[in-house]
Structure to design on (285 residues):
């Protein structure tokens, strides 16, 4: 199964990052969102990140121009997905939203089109129930920032067609990712481990064990993590991680994933991390 035309649904941080790496690898990419302003910001972010690559000597000007030329943006869903070999959704972590989106996409794509969800924890099987060809549904969990992070977590449910998995593994390698394959289970591999660590780190701040900076430093220098769990929570979004924690606590029956009171207060006060300027860190500058 050749993947040459890709539609990315959702032009936010993850969506425009996925569009970036797909176009850089040579695919024709269509970036869709409900709001034209969001699409425009996504396209601008791609160009800006490519420009940073040029400044650092990692990308040349010709590659930048060719990559940007391969990406189009718009607010017509049917037009965006028509003829796509792969549709990747990068919309908010709400099961019914993802299900309704795939149900809306399916009539406009070919029988061989792969429908991929970038969910970090939701059930791939339950998402696949919304379409008539569940074997074409798979999880492609990217990491932020997509154009830098090397991992691609490929998640298969019991009905995922082997040819779909193989095509996604080959495409993942083509865009420069190290792929791991994980069975459809709450939290998969990365979120299950990462969110559990993050929740415990928040409890430590709540209990006054140490500052957010010192807890993160402990994990970076003591365990060689590239980034501490609290700074990562700010980057992902305190609210996003809270919702994932609630979901995993319920699905796994494990209180370790239950969001601490401090986290709930931060979300209620709008301290959501980098996207709002403040979280466990100040990002206002």
């Amino acid at each position: 199964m050749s993947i040459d035309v890709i539609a990315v649904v959702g032009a936010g941080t993850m969506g425009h990052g996925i569009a970036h790496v797909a176009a850089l690898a040579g695919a024709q990419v269509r970036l869709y969102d409900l709001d034209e302003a969001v699409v425009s910001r996504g396209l601008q972010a791609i160009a800006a990140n490519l420009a940073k690559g040029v400044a650092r000597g990692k990308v040349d000007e010709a590659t930048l121009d060719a990559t940007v030329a391969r990406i189009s943006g718009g607010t017509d869903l049917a037009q965006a997905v028509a003829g796509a070999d792969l549709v990747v959704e990068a919309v908010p972590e709400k099961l019914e939203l993802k299900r309704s989106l795939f149900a809306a996409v399916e009539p406009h794509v070919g029988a061989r089109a792969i429908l991929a969800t970038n969910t970090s924890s939701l059930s791939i099987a339950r998402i696949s129930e919304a379409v008539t060809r569940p074997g074409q549904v798979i999880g492609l969990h990217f990491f932020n920032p997509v154009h830098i992070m090397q991992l691609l977590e490929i998640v298969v449910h019991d009905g995922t067609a082997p040819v779909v998995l193989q095509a996604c593994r080959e495409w993942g390698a083509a865009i420069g990712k190290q792929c791991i394959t994980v069975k459809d289970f709450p939290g998969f591999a990365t979120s299950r481990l990462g969110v559990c660590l993050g929740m415990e780190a928040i409890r430590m701040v709540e209990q006054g064990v140490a500052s957010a900076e010192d807890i993160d430093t402990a994990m970076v220098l003591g365990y060689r993590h590239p980034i501490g769990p609290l700074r990562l929570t700010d980057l992902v979004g305190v609210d996003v991680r809270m919702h994932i924690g609630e979901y995993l606590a319920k699905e796994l029956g494990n209180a370790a994933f239950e969001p601490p009171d401090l986290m709930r207060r931060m979300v209620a006060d709008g301290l959501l991390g980098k996207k709002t300027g403040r979280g466990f860190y100040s990002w206002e500058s």
Observations:
- Strands lie at 5-9, 28-32, 71-74, 86-89, 114-117, 137-141, 151-156, 178-183.
- The CA atoms of residues 247 and 253 lie 10 Å apart.
